[in-house]
């Protein structure tokens, strides 16, 4: 769990720095930072989506995942959770929910999260997660400077997701298979693109409702190799 704990600390420290800086940043400049983050997020999402070896798999995964997520109301659940966390933090920030959900998805949807957590669980190698920690810590500075304390609470999501993958490492080792991981990454990339749209104020999507796609994608890759 060393890598995950380092990642959690990195997000918390980065968020603290970001919030301290954010108080000194004019609103106009904050909008510029959010636009820059949106463009960067689009680039990351496109890069991830291009990992697919069969474009039909991530497309089908996102469509089916979106249907399942809508039925389960995943986005609504996360919004309610974020509102509760905001109550505990006594924060009046209007961007708390957006910060929490956006940072949680950006920090936990991707091959580095899956591979790094499984590697640590299987052989104790936390190198990849520590590398990811440096990236997440830097990103959390930028996110927290504009979206506030909700970003810091995404450390809880990182702990739960990566910690679970690490503890279940031996049982989930099959996910390290090239095609399964690539299709899961591609589906995650489409979700990250959606976050980019949200940050750029192009289209507000219920991104969390697409989370089942991360399970459907490797399943389809296994069924249709």
UniProtKB/TrEMBL annotation:
<feature type="transmembrane region" description="Helical">
    <location>
        <begin position="207"/>
        <end position="224"/>
    </location>
</feature>
<dbReference type="InterPro" id="IPR007563">
    <property type="entry name" value="DUF554"/>
</dbReference>
<dbReference type="Pfam" id="PF04474">
    <property type="entry name" value="DUF554"/>
</dbReference>
<keyword id="KW-0812">Transmembrane</keyword>
<keyword id="KW-1133">Transmembrane helix</keyword>
<keyword id="KW-0472">Membrane</keyword>
<feature type="transmembrane region" description="Helical">
    <location>
        <begin position="94"/>
        <end position="118"/>
    </location>
</feature>
<feature type="transmembrane region" description="Helical">
    <location>
        <begin position="32"/>
        <end position="50"/>
    </location>
</feature>
<feature type="transmembrane region" description="Helical">
    <location>
        <begin position="55"/>
        <end position="74"/>
    </location>
</feature>
<feature type="transmembrane region" description="Helical">
    <location>
        <begin position="180"/>
        <end position="200"/>
    </location>
</feature>
<protein>
    <submittedName>
        <fullName>DUF554 domain-containing protein</fullName>
    </submittedName>
</protein>
<feature type="transmembrane region" description="Helical">
    <location>
        <begin position="139"/>
        <end position="160"/>
    </location>
</feature>
């Amino acid at each position: 769990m060393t890598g995950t704990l380092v990642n959690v600390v990195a997000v918390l420290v980065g968020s603290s720095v970001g919030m301290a800086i954010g108080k000194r940043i004019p609103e106009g400049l904050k909008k510029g930072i959010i636009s820059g983050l949106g463009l960067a997020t689009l680039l990351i999402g496109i890069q991830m989506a291009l990992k697919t070896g069969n474009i039909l798999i991530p497309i089908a995964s996102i469509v089916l995942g979106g249907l399942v997520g809508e039925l389960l109301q995943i986005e609504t659940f996360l919004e309610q959770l974020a509102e509760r966390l905001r109550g505990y933090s006594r924060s009046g920030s209007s961007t708390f929910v957006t910060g929490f959900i956006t940072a949680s998805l950006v920090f936990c949807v991707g091959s580095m999260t899956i591979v790094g957590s499984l590697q640590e669980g299987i052989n104790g190698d936390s190198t990849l997660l520590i590398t990811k920690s440096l990236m997440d810590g830097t990103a959390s500075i930028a996110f927290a400077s504009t979206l506030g304390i909700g970003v810091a609470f995404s450390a809880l999501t990182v702990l739960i997701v990566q910690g679970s993958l690490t503890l279940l490492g031996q049982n989930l080792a099959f996910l390290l298979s090239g095609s399964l991981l690539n299709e899961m990454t591609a589906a995650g990339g489409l979700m990250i693109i959606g976050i980019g749209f949200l940050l750029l104020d192009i289209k507000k999507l219920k991104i969390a409702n697409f989370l089942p796609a991360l399970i459907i994608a490797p399943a389809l890759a296994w069924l249709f190799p």
